[in-house]
Recover the amino acids of this structure.
Protein backbone atom coordinates (compact mmCIF):
# COMPACT_ATOMS: atom_id res chain seq x y z
CA UNK A 1 0.00 0.00 0.00
CA UNK A 2 1.17 3.51 -0.83
CA UNK A 3 0.00 6.95 0.27
CA UNK A 4 -1.33 9.39 -2.36
CA UNK A 5 -2.00 13.11 -2.04
CA UNK A 6 -5.08 14.43 -3.82
CA UNK A 7 -6.97 17.62 -4.67
CA UNK A 8 -10.70 17.09 -5.08
CA UNK A 9 -14.05 18.84 -4.93
CA UNK A 10 -16.90 17.71 -2.69
CA UNK A 11 -20.49 17.36 -3.86
CA UNK A 12 -21.14 20.76 -2.26
CA UNK A 13 -18.46 22.32 -4.48
CA UNK A 14 -15.87 22.77 -1.71
CA UNK A 15 -12.16 22.22 -2.47
CA UNK A 16 -10.63 19.43 -0.40
CA UNK A 17 -7.03 18.26 0.02
CA UNK A 18 -5.87 15.13 1.77
CA UNK A 19 -4.22 11.73 1.57
CA UNK A 20 -5.47 8.23 0.85
CA UNK A 21 -3.83 4.82 0.99
CA UNK A 22 -4.12 2.55 -2.07
CA UNK A 23 -2.11 0.14 -4.19
CA UNK A 24 -2.10 2.27 -7.34
CA UNK A 25 -3.22 5.78 -8.41
CA UNK A 26 -6.20 4.19 -10.19
CA UNK A 27 -7.34 2.46 -7.00
CA UNK A 28 -6.92 5.71 -5.08
CA UNK A 29 -8.99 7.60 -7.68
CA UNK A 30 -11.69 4.93 -7.56
CA UNK A 31 -11.81 5.14 -3.75
CA UNK A 32 -12.21 8.91 -3.87
CA UNK A 33 -14.97 8.61 -6.46
CA UNK A 34 -16.84 6.23 -4.15
CA UNK A 35 -16.59 8.95 -1.51
CA UNK A 36 -18.48 11.23 -3.94
CA UNK A 37 -15.42 13.39 -4.62
CA UNK A 38 -14.45 14.80 -8.01
CA UNK A 39 -10.69 14.28 -8.33
CA UNK A 40 -8.64 17.09 -9.87
CA UNK A 41 -5.16 15.70 -9.23
CA UNK A 42 -3.59 12.75 -7.49
CA UNK A 43 0.07 11.86 -6.95
CA UNK A 44 2.19 9.70 -4.69
CA UNK A 45 2.93 11.43 -1.39
CA UNK A 46 6.48 12.26 -0.48
CA UNK A 47 7.82 10.64 2.69
CA UNK A 48 7.20 12.94 5.62
CA UNK A 49 9.49 13.51 8.55
CA UNK A 50 8.45 11.82 11.77
CA UNK A 51 6.29 14.27 13.67
CA UNK A 52 6.70 14.61 17.39
CA UNK A 53 3.87 14.92 19.89
CA UNK A 54 2.39 18.30 20.68
CA UNK A 55 4.09 19.77 23.76
CA UNK A 56 2.19 19.42 27.03
CA UNK A 57 1.91 23.17 27.67
CA UNK A 58 1.03 23.85 24.04
CA UNK A 59 -1.66 21.16 24.11
CA UNK A 60 -3.11 22.40 27.40
CA UNK A 61 -3.41 25.91 25.97
CA UNK A 62 -5.01 24.58 22.79
CA UNK A 63 -7.43 22.42 24.78
CA UNK A 64 -8.42 25.31 27.09
CA UNK A 65 -8.98 27.65 24.14
CA UNK A 66 -11.10 25.01 22.41
CA UNK A 67 -13.16 24.56 25.60
CA UNK A 68 -13.76 28.33 25.74
CA UNK A 69 -14.80 28.43 22.09
CA UNK A 70 -17.26 25.54 22.43
CA UNK A 71 -18.65 27.04 25.67
CA UNK A 72 -19.45 30.17 23.66
CA UNK A 73 -21.55 28.08 21.26
CA UNK A 74 -19.26 28.44 18.22
CA UNK A 75 -19.39 25.39 15.86
CA UNK A 76 -16.33 23.17 16.19
CA UNK A 77 -15.07 23.58 12.60
CA UNK A 78 -15.37 27.37 12.70
CA UNK A 79 -13.86 27.47 16.20
CA UNK A 80 -10.84 25.47 15.09
CA UNK A 81 -10.37 27.68 12.04
CA UNK A 82 -10.44 30.80 14.23
CA UNK A 83 -8.15 29.13 16.75
CA UNK A 84 -5.57 28.35 14.06
CA UNK A 85 -5.21 32.03 13.33
CA UNK A 86 -4.52 32.75 17.01
CA UNK A 87 -1.74 30.16 17.47
CA UNK A 88 1.88 31.35 17.50
CA UNK A 89 3.47 28.01 16.56
CA UNK A 90 3.58 27.47 12.79
CA UNK A 91 3.55 23.68 13.14
CA UNK A 92 0.54 23.80 15.46
CA UNK A 93 -1.24 26.19 13.08
CA UNK A 94 -0.68 23.82 10.14
CA UNK A 95 -1.86 20.90 12.26
CA UNK A 96 -5.12 22.64 13.21
CA UNK A 97 -5.65 23.79 9.62
CA UNK A 98 -5.24 20.22 8.35
CA UNK A 99 -7.71 18.87 10.90
CA UNK A 100 -10.22 21.64 10.12
CA UNK A 101 -9.94 20.94 6.37
CA UNK A 102 -10.72 17.27 6.93
CA UNK A 103 -13.69 18.08 9.20
CA UNK A 104 -15.07 20.48 6.56
CA UNK A 105 -14.57 17.75 3.97
CA UNK A 106 -16.79 15.30 5.87
CA UNK A 107 -14.20 13.34 7.89
CA UNK A 108 -15.43 12.51 11.40
CA UNK A 109 -13.74 14.27 14.30
CA UNK A 110 -12.66 10.93 15.76
CA UNK A 111 -10.97 9.87 12.51
CA UNK A 112 -9.31 13.26 12.05
CA UNK A 113 -7.58 13.03 15.42
CA UNK A 114 -6.94 9.27 15.25
CA UNK A 115 -4.84 9.90 12.14
CA UNK A 116 -2.65 12.09 14.35
CA UNK A 117 -2.73 9.93 17.46
CA UNK A 118 1.06 10.25 17.90
CA UNK A 119 0.69 14.00 18.33
CA UNK A 120 -2.25 14.13 20.74
CA UNK A 121 -3.03 12.35 24.04
CA UNK A 122 -4.69 8.89 23.87
CA UNK A 123 -8.42 8.89 23.06
CA UNK A 124 -8.51 12.66 22.47
CA UNK A 125 -10.50 12.13 19.28
CA UNK A 126 -12.99 9.88 21.10
CA UNK A 127 -13.40 12.44 23.87
CA UNK A 128 -14.17 15.14 21.31
CA UNK A 129 -16.62 12.86 19.50
CA UNK A 130 -18.41 11.95 22.75
CA UNK A 131 -18.55 15.61 23.72
CA UNK A 132 -20.07 16.64 20.38
CA UNK A 133 -22.65 13.84 20.48
CA UNK A 134 -23.71 14.52 24.07
CA UNK A 135 -23.50 18.32 23.93
CA UNK A 136 -20.98 18.31 26.83
CA UNK A 137 -17.80 19.01 24.88
CA UNK A 138 -16.79 22.03 26.94
CA UNK A 139 -17.14 20.08 30.22
CA UNK A 140 -15.09 17.17 28.87
CA UNK A 141 -12.29 19.42 27.63
CA UNK A 142 -12.21 21.31 30.93
CA UNK A 143 -12.06 18.02 32.85
CA UNK A 144 -9.16 16.81 30.69
CA UNK A 145 -7.27 20.04 31.29
CA UNK A 146 -7.81 19.72 35.03
CA UNK A 147 -6.15 16.29 35.05
CA UNK A 148 -3.25 17.52 32.92
CA UNK A 149 -2.73 20.46 35.28
CA UNK A 150 -2.79 18.08 38.26
CA UNK A 151 -0.10 15.87 36.71
CA UNK A 152 2.00 18.90 35.73
CA UNK A 153 1.72 20.35 39.23
CA UNK A 154 2.88 17.06 40.78
CA UNK A 155 5.94 16.95 38.51
CA UNK A 156 6.71 20.60 39.27
CA UNK A 157 6.50 20.01 43.03
CA UNK A 158 8.92 17.08 42.79
CA UNK A 159 11.31 19.05 40.57
CA UNK A 160 11.23 22.12 42.81
CA UNK A 161 11.69 20.01 45.94
CA UNK A 162 14.69 18.15 44.55
CA UNK A 163 16.14 20.82 42.25
CA UNK A 164 17.73 23.07 44.88
CA UNK A 165 19.12 20.22 47.03
CA UNK A 166 20.42 18.52 43.87
CA UNK A 167 22.40 21.65 42.94
CA UNK A 168 23.78 21.81 46.47
CA UNK A 169 24.64 18.10 46.36
CA UNK A 170 26.46 18.41 43.03
CA UNK A 171 28.45 21.43 44.20
CA UNK A 172 29.24 19.67 47.47
CA UNK A 173 30.34 16.56 45.58
CA UNK A 174 32.71 18.65 43.44
CA UNK A 175 34.20 20.41 46.45
CA UNK A 176 34.50 17.23 48.52
CA UNK A 177 36.05 15.37 45.60
CA UNK A 178 38.68 18.11 45.35
CA UNK A 179 39.32 17.88 49.09
CA UNK A 180 39.61 14.08 48.89
CA UNK A 181 42.03 14.23 45.96
CA UNK A 182 44.32 17.09 47.00
CA UNK A 183 43.95 17.88 50.72
CA UNK A 184 42.99 14.78 52.70
CA UNK A 185 45.98 12.68 51.50
CA UNK A 186 48.34 15.33 52.90
CA UNK A 187 46.13 15.83 55.93
CA UNK A 188 46.29 12.08 56.60
CA UNK A 189 50.07 12.23 57.05
CA UNK A 190 49.74 15.17 59.45
CA UNK A 191 47.05 13.36 61.46
CA UNK A 192 49.28 10.28 61.71
CA UNK A 193 52.14 12.36 63.10
CA UNK A 194 49.84 14.22 65.50
CA UNK A 195 48.42 11.01 66.93
CA UNK A 196 51.90 9.46 67.10
CA UNK A 197 50.86 6.22 65.47
CA UNK A 198 47.69 5.81 67.56
CA UNK A 199 44.65 4.40 65.84
CA UNK A 200 42.50 7.03 64.14
CA UNK A 201 38.72 7.15 64.66
CA UNK A 202 36.75 4.78 62.41
CA UNK A 203 34.98 7.57 60.54
CA UNK A 204 38.30 9.25 59.79
CA UNK A 205 39.83 6.00 58.55
CA UNK A 206 36.78 5.53 56.32
CA UNK A 207 37.19 8.96 54.74
CA UNK A 208 40.95 8.54 54.34
CA UNK A 209 40.26 5.26 52.57
CA UNK A 210 37.76 7.01 50.32
CA UNK A 211 40.37 9.65 49.52
CA UNK A 212 42.65 6.91 48.17
CA UNK A 213 39.84 5.61 45.92
CA UNK A 214 38.11 8.76 44.66
CA UNK A 215 38.45 8.03 40.94
CA UNK A 216 37.42 4.34 41.22
CA UNK A 217 34.46 5.43 43.38
CA UNK A 218 33.11 7.95 40.83
CA UNK A 219 33.77 5.49 38.01
CA UNK A 220 31.63 2.92 39.83
CA UNK A 221 28.92 5.55 40.47
CA UNK A 222 28.92 6.43 36.76
CA UNK A 223 28.52 2.78 35.78
CA UNK A 224 25.67 2.33 38.27
CA UNK A 225 23.82 5.40 36.97
CA UNK A 226 24.33 4.27 33.36
CA UNK A 227 23.05 0.77 34.26
CA UNK A 228 19.92 2.21 35.91
CA UNK A 229 19.19 4.42 32.88
CA UNK A 230 19.72 1.46 30.54
CA UNK A 231 17.43 -0.80 32.59
CA UNK A 232 14.66 1.81 32.71
CA UNK A 233 14.94 2.36 28.95
CA UNK A 234 14.85 -1.40 28.37
CA UNK A 235 11.82 -1.85 30.65
CA UNK A 236 10.01 0.96 28.80
CA UNK A 237 10.19 -0.98 25.53
CA UNK A 238 7.67 -3.69 26.51
CA UNK A 239 4.42 -3.85 28.50
CA UNK A 240 5.63 -6.11 31.32
CA UNK A 241 8.62 -3.83 31.91
CA UNK A 242 6.42 -0.73 32.03
CA UNK A 243 4.16 -2.47 34.54
CA UNK A 244 7.19 -3.29 36.69
CA UNK A 245 8.36 0.35 36.58
CA UNK A 246 4.86 1.48 37.50
CA UNK A 247 4.71 -0.97 40.42
CA UNK A 248 8.02 0.32 41.76
CA UNK A 249 6.84 3.93 41.34
CA UNK A 250 3.62 3.24 43.25
CA UNK A 251 5.67 1.84 46.15
CA UNK A 252 7.36 5.21 46.75
CA UNK A 253 5.79 6.83 49.85
CA UNK A 254 3.46 9.79 49.17
CA UNK A 255 4.55 10.11 45.51
CA UNK A 256 3.12 6.69 44.65
CA UNK A 257 -0.15 7.56 46.39
CA UNK A 258 -0.47 10.84 44.48
CA UNK A 259 0.19 9.01 41.20
CA UNK A 260 -2.35 6.28 42.02
CA UNK A 261 -5.07 8.78 43.02
CA UNK A 262 -4.47 10.82 39.86
CA UNK A 263 -4.90 7.70 37.70
CA UNK A 264 -8.15 6.72 39.42
CA UNK A 265 -9.49 10.27 39.15
CA UNK A 266 -8.82 10.42 35.44
CA UNK A 267 -10.25 6.94 34.86
CA UNK A 268 -13.45 7.74 36.78
CA UNK A 269 -14.11 10.93 34.84
CA UNK A 270 -13.20 9.29 31.54
CA UNK A 271 -15.69 6.49 32.32
CA UNK A 272 -18.34 9.11 33.09
CA UNK A 273 -17.70 10.65 29.67
CA UNK A 274 -17.98 7.26 27.97
CA UNK A 275 -21.23 6.49 29.84
CA UNK A 276 -22.70 9.80 28.65
CA UNK A 277 -21.67 8.81 25.10
CA UNK A 278 -23.69 5.57 25.41
CA UNK A 279 -20.84 3.06 25.79
CA UNK A 280 -21.44 -0.20 27.66
CA UNK A 281 -19.44 -1.05 30.77
CA UNK A 282 -16.73 -3.22 29.11
CA UNK A 283 -16.09 -0.50 26.51
CA UNK A 284 -16.03 2.17 29.24
CA UNK A 285 -13.41 0.24 31.21
CA UNK A 286 -11.20 -0.38 28.18
CA UNK A 287 -11.38 3.16 26.79
CA UNK A 288 -11.06 4.93 30.14
CA UNK A 289 -8.08 2.85 31.27
CA UNK A 290 -6.43 3.45 27.90
CA UNK A 291 -6.82 7.20 28.37
CA UNK A 292 -4.77 7.05 31.60
CA UNK A 293 -1.73 5.50 29.91
CA UNK A 294 -1.25 3.15 32.89
CA UNK A 295 -0.22 -0.36 31.81
CA UNK A 296 -1.40 -1.84 35.12
CA UNK A 297 -4.82 -0.22 34.81
CA UNK A 298 -5.13 -1.28 31.17
CA UNK A 299 -4.33 -4.91 32.05
CA UNK A 300 -6.73 -5.05 35.00
CA UNK A 301 -9.50 -3.31 33.05
CA UNK A 302 -9.12 -5.70 30.11
CA UNK A 303 -9.50 -8.76 32.35
CA UNK A 304 -12.36 -7.09 34.25
CA UNK A 305 -14.17 -6.18 31.02
CA UNK A 306 -13.79 -9.75 29.72
CA UNK A 307 -15.37 -11.23 32.86
CA UNK A 308 -18.25 -8.72 32.72
CA UNK A 309 -18.88 -9.74 29.11
CA UNK A 310 -19.16 -13.35 30.34
CA UNK A 311 -21.97 -12.37 32.70
CA UNK A 312 -20.24 -11.60 36.02
CA UNK A 313 -21.12 -8.47 37.95
CA UNK A 314 -18.35 -5.95 38.45
CA UNK A 315 -17.78 -6.71 42.16
CA UNK A 316 -17.41 -10.45 41.55
CA UNK A 317 -15.22 -9.88 38.51
CA UNK A 318 -13.00 -7.42 40.40
CA UNK A 319 -11.86 -9.79 43.17
CA UNK A 320 -8.37 -9.95 41.63
CA UNK A 321 -7.94 -6.17 41.20
CA UNK A 322 -5.05 -4.47 42.99
CA UNK A 323 -4.87 -1.08 41.28
CA UNK A 324 -8.64 -0.56 41.06
CA UNK A 325 -9.91 -0.42 44.68
CA UNK A 326 -13.09 -2.13 45.93
CA UNK A 327 -14.69 1.23 46.68
CA UNK A 328 -14.32 2.16 43.01
CA UNK A 329 -16.02 -1.05 41.87
CA UNK A 330 -18.72 -0.88 44.55
CA UNK A 331 -19.60 2.69 43.57
CA UNK A 332 -19.93 1.61 39.92
CA UNK A 333 -22.22 -1.30 40.81
CA UNK A 334 -24.35 0.88 43.08
CA UNK A 335 -24.62 3.57 40.43
CA UNK A 336 -25.68 1.00 37.83
CA UNK A 337 -28.40 -0.40 40.11
CA UNK A 338 -29.78 3.06 40.96
CA UNK A 339 -29.39 4.47 37.44
CA UNK A 340 -26.93 7.06 38.83
CA UNK A 341 -23.75 5.68 37.28
CA UNK A 342 -22.59 8.89 35.62
CA UNK A 343 -23.05 10.96 38.80
CA UNK A 344 -21.27 8.31 40.89
CA UNK A 345 -18.33 8.27 38.51
CA UNK A 346 -17.99 12.06 38.58
CA UNK A 347 -18.11 11.94 42.40
CA UNK A 348 -15.38 9.29 42.40
CA UNK A 349 -13.28 11.43 40.10
CA UNK A 350 -13.62 14.44 42.40
CA UNK A 351 -12.82 12.35 45.50
CA UNK A 352 -9.62 10.90 44.04
CA UNK A 353 -8.67 14.31 42.66
CA UNK A 354 -8.91 15.75 46.18
CA UNK A 355 -6.78 12.88 47.50
CA UNK A 356 -4.15 13.69 44.88
CA UNK A 357 -4.15 17.38 45.84
CA UNK A 358 -3.77 16.48 49.52
CA UNK A 359 -0.83 14.26 48.60
CA UNK A 360 0.72 17.11 46.63
CA UNK A 361 0.51 19.35 49.70
CA UNK A 362 2.29 16.66 51.72
CA UNK A 363 5.00 16.43 49.05
CA UNK A 364 5.66 20.14 49.35
CA UNK A 365 5.90 19.82 53.13
CA UNK A 366 8.15 16.73 53.14
CA UNK A 367 10.44 16.57 50.12
CA UNK A 368 12.40 19.81 50.42
CA UNK A 369 13.22 19.53 54.17
CA UNK A 370 14.10 15.84 53.75
CA UNK A 371 16.45 16.51 50.84
CA UNK A 372 18.12 19.44 52.62
CA UNK A 373 18.62 17.38 55.78
CA UNK A 374 20.22 14.62 53.70
CA UNK A 375 22.63 17.01 52.01
CA UNK A 376 23.47 18.67 55.31
CA UNK A 377 24.12 15.28 56.87
CA UNK A 378 26.66 14.36 54.18
CA UNK A 379 28.53 17.64 54.60
CA UNK A 380 28.47 17.28 58.40
CA UNK A 381 29.98 13.78 58.23
CA UNK A 382 32.82 15.06 56.04
CA UNK A 383 33.66 17.87 58.47
CA UNK A 384 33.31 15.57 61.48
CA UNK A 385 35.67 12.97 59.97
CA UNK A 386 38.40 15.58 59.61
CA UNK A 387 38.02 17.03 63.09
CA UNK A 388 37.52 13.85 65.11
CA UNK A 389 41.29 13.18 65.47
CA UNK A 390 41.89 16.76 66.57
CA UNK A 391 39.06 16.50 69.10
CA UNK A 392 40.59 13.22 70.35
CA UNK A 393 44.01 14.89 70.79
CA UNK A 394 42.52 17.86 72.64
CA UNK A 395 40.61 15.54 74.98
CA UNK A 396 43.78 13.50 75.70
CA UNK A 397 45.77 16.68 76.45
CA UNK A 398 43.11 18.10 78.75
CA UNK A 399 42.94 14.85 80.68
Amino acid sequence: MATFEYNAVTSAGRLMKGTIEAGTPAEASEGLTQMQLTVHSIEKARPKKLKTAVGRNEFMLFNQQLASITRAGIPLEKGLRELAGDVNSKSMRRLIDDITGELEGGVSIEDAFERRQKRFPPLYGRILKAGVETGRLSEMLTSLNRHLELATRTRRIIFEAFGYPAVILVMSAIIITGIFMFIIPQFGTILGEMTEGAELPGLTRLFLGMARNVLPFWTAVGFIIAAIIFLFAMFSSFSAGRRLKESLFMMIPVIGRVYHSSLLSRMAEAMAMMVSAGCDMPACLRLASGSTGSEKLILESEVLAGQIEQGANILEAGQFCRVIPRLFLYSIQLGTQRNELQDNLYSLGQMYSEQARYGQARLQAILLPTALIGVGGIVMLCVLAMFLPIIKIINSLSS
In short: The chain has three domains: 2-44, 56-145, 156-399.
